[in-house]
Amino acid sequence: MSDMVGKGILKSLSVSLKRFAETYLDDLSWLGKRYRTDKGIAHRGSKDARGIFTVQYPEEKIPVPEEFRFVPFLVYDEGPNGEKTLRCTSCGICAKVCPPQCIWIVRSTDPATGRPIPDPAKFTIDADLCMNCGLCAEFCPFDAIKMDHDYELASFTRNVYDETKLSKSAKYYESIRPVNARREDAARAAKAASRTGQGE
Amino acid sequence: MATPVATPAPAQTLDLPARFPGVLNPDTRPGYSGWILDNANLLKFATALRDELGYDYLSSVTAVDYLPEGKMEVVYHVYKTTGGAGVVFKIQVPRADPMEVPSLVSIYPGAELQEREAWDLFGIKFTGHPDLRRILMWEGFAGHPMRKDWHEPYFEEEAKPLKSRWPDGRMIMAESKNLFGDNISYPDGFNPESQTFDPEKALYEALRSYQKDEVGLDTDHIIVNMGPQHPSTHGVFRVAVVLDGEKIVNLKPVMGYLHRNHEKIGERNTFIMNMPYTDRLDYLSSMSNNFGYALAVEKLMNVKPTERAEYIRVMMAEMTRIASHLMAIGALLNDLGAYFTPMLYALEERELLLDIFEAVSGSRMMCNYFRFGGVARDLPEGTLQKIKGLFFERLPRKIEEIDRFLSENEIIRSRGIGQGVLTAEDAIKYSAAGPLLRASGIPYDVRRAEPYSIYDRFEFDVVVRTNGDIYDRLMVRFDEIRQSIRIVQQAVKQLPNGPVMALKPMYQVRVPPGEAYGRVEGPKGELGFYVISNGKPTPWRYHVRAPSFINLTAFGPICIGQKLADVVAVLGSIDIVLGEVDR
Predict the structure, then answer these.
(1) Enclosing domain of residue A96
(2) d(Cα B160, Cα B110) in Å, to the nearest integer?
(3) Which residues of B touch A45 (CB under 8 A)?
């Protein structure tokens, strides 16, 4: 036999040893700034990451990317006097496209005429059924339902959310998804402009 | 072995009706293709197809319930391991019990688990099948759940969207309904109070049906159950083995613990709703699952994705392959007893790939990224830079490091080399797919055998190893990771600009009637989606040819004759994901 038995194991161990040493060397090179700093967290998730990879949740949190999606919420616009108007028109597309069927919507009716008006009377999402697929947000024609970034959902009871719990401001939406919000605002403005243009 | 290995057939135009006069009727329903034949001719036709025409690889067997027509249909897809288009043939039987169809196990042993599935879910009796038991449901289950007239408790409607969601919208939680009150039914003559039966009886009877070795001392054989769960916890899986000392004389995988009837759910969903559900099949490679389903529905809709979308799709599918193989390598090493050091080295790189999935699709594992005609959204700013950094700088280096770490290690070599061998003939016979097939010396890869999407534009090698043992299956995965890195590098360089969707986004797509079989080379092997549309918003039939599931057909034959300690290693080298096995 030309090869020494055990050479392969030594080779394996050398890889382990190298990684073991790297852990401490990388720590030292950061002079204590490797943990609990934004830069340190970003480094551990980058192509140049060496040494310890783990992020100490919940002391440290990885920032989520803009497209990250978790349980949907309803967007409301704030008027000049602080009044809140939900963008939702209760058209039902989100309820119809929802794969696990976790959205329940009751339409409002005009008490005078009895005809439906575009505003939900009740809007319920069973967040425990929700599979976070994002189809509701993708197909909503009014940008009224969007996927959230808040993934800390643990609770002692079932997570069944009604319209008050689901409502979040347009400002909040813009803060978590700036690129998307800007693009959608521009598209809505253009649409509104073309509609008034036609009306004249 | 009697089964011949496919030899490259001389180029000839295949005129099946001329070759089999009076046997084949073309399937003339609009949107359908293939051949319809009779029960009586099935075995003769299949034998000739395999032995004379070289169609040696049975990819998929499934059934379709045509309730309105009063017919049950069994659909077979066979291919050549030398590549090219396949042959589809169908058997139709009247929809009245017993529905009998001859079993193809004697010709294509790869049909074994698939025919059991069709029996379990559709109630088609395959005469001549050596072990026709239920497979996903339990012994004693009443009815066959994939039949169109079978309804579960809490059944609301045949198809989503459910009317109770909108415009009624009154929310009721399912658990507030009483499970044992108004919505449970027992089969005729069944009394849960007095009747007891042993659901395991059939399994143990099947286990005892093996050839006893009459030579030498007469020893007692014992049955050992591994699991449910243990087989080193790839998931909720169970292996029942018969042992002669330490040697395995018979082995049966027992599955279905994670069964949710994905296909029934899929037939109630609208076409787009199925996309996020496919993520949950093989949950380690959701992008590949999306790919296969999108291909099948696009075939039906006759839509071509845009150029940019094609490149993004290929990039994502190859990244998925790398992520899944890294997981497979780590898990196999866990199974061999190298607890978690190799696993975590592999997971680090997978983590970086998942970061890209998260930035692109919004989710690390349940990506739901593909749409009919493209992908859900374009790559966000900075993502391409990240992919470049990973694929040109980090990954090639890191894969070599993990390779150096593992492949020369004497312990891995002695546990792997020559152990758990699957010969090339057997691999084809048992319809093994993916790394399991290629480690046995069959260079069969759907990306090359029948190129889909834009795989014909890339330079890569079909990885192949010849020994068919555990070690080769490990090495095939390393080689495939290297090839995938090559593909992504090319795709990044060639990525064109332009839109990523060929259609206007629609929440309910119109799918013309017909059938389509979309297959991709997933990380675990050939992943196929057989979809039938009847023009309605929901598919009439939605079938998944799950590679993890069908690869288990070969699991027993590989293990017989091995030692008990190697069962877990063999299972690790097959690389199953229970979400896909059980569906």
Answers:
(1) 71-199
(2) 35
(3) 351-352, 355
